[in-house]
Amino acid sequence: MNGKIIVEREPHEKDGKTYQNYFIRGNIRGVDVRVMVVPPDFGGYTVLDIVYAGAKEAELILVPYEIEDEKTGRVSKGYSYAVHSEDEDGTVYECKVKPFRKSDKDMLQMLLR
């Protein structure tokens, strides 16, 4: 993977229509896992189609953030996630994604360590 985290996609059928599943393969303590990721809203699936441009893989990027609570002054830090690809001319395409379930969030954090 050359230090990159790859988000794969594969088609699945439901009710006669074809949809895409987006996931990260990994191994945690000898257990093969698939971390499912989804866009933040339904319209994000169209954006993901644009980012992938027919490819089966794209890169996951981590976007750092800081949020300060106005009342307490406490600062929370963390990462949001996006799927990223580039054209031959360097044009960047991105779509935010999030872990599908709480268990996917936990596994993603384990993989990132």
In words, what does this structure look like?
The protein is an alpha+beta fold. The protein is 18% helix and 55% strand. It is built from 2 helices and 6 strands; from the N terminus they run βββαβββα. It has a 6-stranded antiparallel barrel with strand order 1-2-3-6-5-4. The longest helix has 11 residues.
What share of the residues lie within helices? 10-25%
Shape: globular
Largest sheet: 6 strands, antiparallel, barrel
Give the strand tally.
Answer: 6
Kindly name the structural category. alpha+beta
Taken in chain order, the helices and strands follow as EEEHEEEH
Kindly report the average pLDDT value. Answer: 94
Q: Enumerate how many helices there are, as a single number.
A: 2
Q: What gyration radius follows from the Cα positions, in whole Å?
A: 16 Å
Approximate strand percentage: over 45%
Strand order of the largest sheet: 1-2-3-6-5-4
Low-confidence stretches: none
Q: Give the terminus-to-terminus CA distance.
A: 15 Å
